[in-house]
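Quick review question:
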């Protein structure tokens, strides 16, 4: 049986994988099998951590808002602030509130005073 000559498709696929893994260290960027495994692992981690990043940032914003709100009043907390915001139908999300809390605390105090009246 004569030898079959393979086309360029497999080589093109391996080149694409190598380009993806070119910044990996050691055999993870040189050997085809480990490169393929590391690419799959990297994509799984990226997919998982996109959701985790959203979660972590939301926790950070909540912590910042709560810290600033509790400084001013003794019996006022983040949950009461959010509840009052919803009652007054003010559409401010947590990211914006956290930015206001860091950059301009007085503005956040004014918002909280207005909605508690």
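Suggested answer, residue by residue:
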């Amino acid at each position: 049986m004569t030898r079959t000559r393979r086309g360029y498709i497999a080589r093109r696929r391996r080149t694409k994988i190598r380009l993806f893994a070119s910044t990996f260290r050691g055999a993870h960027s040189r050997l085809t099998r480990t490169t393929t495994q590391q690419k799959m692992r990297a994509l799984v981690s990226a997919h998982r951590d996109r959701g985790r990043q959203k979660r972590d940032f939301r926790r950070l914003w909540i912590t910042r808002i709560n810290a600033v709100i509790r400084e001013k009043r003794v019996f006022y907390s983040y949950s009461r602030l959010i509840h009052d915001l919803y009652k007054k139908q003010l559409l401010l999300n947590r990211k914006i509130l956290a930015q206001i809390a860091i950059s301009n605390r007085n503005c956040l105090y004014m918002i909280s005073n207005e909605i508690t009246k």
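Why it works: The two ends are 90 Å apart (CA to CA). DSSP finds five helices and no strands in the chain.
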